[in-house]
Write a structure and sequence with these properties.
Layout (H helix, E strand, L loop, with lengths): L1 E2 L6 H9 L8 E5 L6 H11 L4 E5 L6 H10 L19 H6 L1
């Protein structure tokens, strides 16, 4: 997932990923230097689910494409789902993609 000033959408998006009918194995979030409370929200999730979440704050703003490239480079899974900070997933998204 990539974020930038997404405080208004982020909790609903992350909760939709966490509430999948088939659990995800990792959530990598790359933040592109948000100036709102996005990083604080992400750190809450990272603290409550440390084995699931990895939050990276870019040293400099990369822009959308480079930020997603960075996030993808940090993943370890065989199947990768890209997500913007305001994409709310249906609870069966992962299950549907796997089938």
């Amino acid at each position: 997932m990539c974020t930038y000033n997404g405080e208004h959408y982020l909790k609903e998006q992350i909760d939709s990923i966490l509430n999948q009918t088939i659990a995800v194995h990792e959530i990598i979030v790359c933040d592109d230097n948000s100036t709102d409370t996005t990083l604080a929200i992400l750190k809450e999730y990272e603290t409550s689910c440390p084995l699931l979440f990895t939050v990276v704050k870019n040293k400099e703003s990369l822009g959308t494409i480079k930020n997603f490239e960075n996030a993808i480079s940090l993943t370890t899974g065989d199947l990768i789902f890209l997500s913007d900070q305001d994409d709310i997933w249906y609870s069966n998204k992962v299950a549907d993609m796997l089938s």
